[in-house]
Amino acid sequence: MKNKKTLLIFMLIIYIINICNICIATNMYTWSITQESSSNIESTSTVNANIGEETGNTLNLQSGSAILIEQTTGQILYGYNVHEQLRPASVTKIMSLLLIMEQIKLGKIDYDTKIPCSANAASMGGSQIWLDTSEELTVREMLKAICVVSANDCVVAMAEHIAGSEEAFVQMMNAKAKELGMNDTTFKNCHGLDEDGHVTSSYDIAIMSKELLNKYPEITQYTTIYMDSLRDGKSSLVNTNKLVRNYEGCTGLKTGSTSLALFNLSASATRDGLSLIAVIMKGPTSAIRFEEAKALLDYGFNNFEYKKLATQGETVKEINIQKGISHTVEIIFEKDVGILVPKGQGSNITQTININHNVLAPIAQGEILGKVTYTLGESKLLEVNLIAKQEVKKIDMITMTCKIYENWFNLLR
C-alpha cells in the first residue's frame, strides 16, 4: 500500500510539471528521403494557367489546333494555337456528359431513371439512334448512346429532362464553363451541330475533359466501349473513336465532326500510372485527327512519367505534445502529392521533411505542424503541408484532477 501511495505522489508531480512547463522556443526536425515508388493518384488541381504558352508545332501536325496535357495535374506538355476559338462539333458533348454525371452524383437522377423523348429531341439531325416519342430509355442507355455513337437525340432528351429545356441546359453548360475557367468557350447548344457563336478552344476542351475524367472516372465504362447494342440487340453501336480499339490504354473520350468544324477529337489514355489527354481541332480528315492524337499521346508517354510522392492522410511521424491531454499527435500529409517529371527522373526526387518540435497544446485537427519539400537536383519542385491528424486539447486542473482520481482508482481497486 505504501508503494502505491508513493507511485501516486510521483504521478501527481509529473502532471504538475506538465501544467507548469513553458516552451521557450520552437525548433524544426529535418530529414531527407529519396522517393522510389511511382503510380497515379487523384488530384483536384486545374489546368495551370502559368504553363499555357505555345510550345510550337514541332511535331508538324496538320490540324488547326492541338494540345497535350497530363490528366492529373493539367500540366501542358505540347500545344499550338491552343486558345484559337473553333467549332467543337460533338466534342461539345463532353460538357453535357459532365453535367449529366453531376446530376447523378447529386442524386437528382440515377442510372435507371427513365428518360422520355420529346418531339424536339426526336427531330435532331446528325448522329442519332432515331429515338421515338413513344419510347423511354434509361440514363445508362442514354449515356451509352451518347458516348459510343454521339447520339444528338439522346443528349437533347437528357438536357430537357435535367433542365426543363435545352436552352436552360445550355445556360448550365456556360455557367460550368465559366466556373472551370474556360474563357474561350461559348455554348449555343448541347450537341455540337454547327451554330454561329458556338465555339471553344483545344485548351478549354482539355479543361473539361480533365474535369470529367478526374471527377467522374466511371464515365470510362461507356467511353471505352467499342461495340455494343441497345433495344434488345436491335440497335447496333460502334464507337466513333477508333483509338478505343487500336491504341493501348485508351480511356476515351469524344469525337466530333461537321462540314464547318472539320474533324475534332479529345483522346485520353493511361499507361503505367501516367494519364494523358490529347485534343485535336480542325483536322483535315478523320484519319489525320486520329494519327495526330496518337502522335501527341506517344510523345507524352515516351518523354514523361507521373511520380506519386504521397497520399492524403498518410502518417509521417508521431511527435510529442507539451501541456496536452495526450502526449503525442500523428502528423499526416494534407493532400495527395504527385508531379510530372522527365521519364527516368522519378527516382531522383529528394524529399526533405521539416516538423515543428516542442509543440504546445492545444492543437486543432488539421493544424499545420510541418512541411515537406521535394527537389530534383538543384530545382525545388513543390512544397506540401503536414497537418495534425487529430485534435489535442490543453490539459487543465480539472482534467489533471480527473486523471489523478482515475489512476488512484486503478491503483487501489
Low-confidence spans: pLDDT under 50, at least 5 residues? 17-52
As a whole number of angstroms, the C-alpha radius of gyration is 28 Å
CATH class of the largest domain: Alpha Beta
CATH topology term of the largest domain: Beta-lactamase
Q: Which whole number gives the mean pLDDT?
A: 87
Strand order of the largest sheet: 1-15-17-18-13-12-16
Which second-level CATH architecture of the largest domain applies?
A: 3-Layer(aba) Sandwich
CATH homolog superfamily of the largest domain? DD-peptidase/beta-lactamase superfamily
Largest sheet: 7 strands, mixed
The number of helical runs is 11
Helix content: 25-40%
Distance between the termini: 11 Å
| Order of helix and strand elements from N to C terminus | HEEEHEHEHHHHHEEHEEEHEEEEEEEEH
Describe this structure in words.
- This protein has 413 residues and is an alpha+beta fold.
- It has two domains: 142 residues, Sandwich (Peptidoglycan synthesis regulatory factor (PBP3), Domain 2), CATH 2.60.410; 257 residues, Beta-lactamase.
- The strands form five sheets. Strands 1-15-17-18-13-12-16 form a seven-stranded mixed β-sheet, with no helix packed on it. Strands 3-2-10-9-8 form a five-stranded antiparallel β-sheet, sandwiched between helices. The protein has a two-stranded antiparallel ribbon with strand order 4-5.
- Helix 1 runs antiparallel to helix 11, helix 2 packs parallel to helix 7 and helix 4 packs across helix 5.
- It is globular, with a radius of gyration of 28 Å.
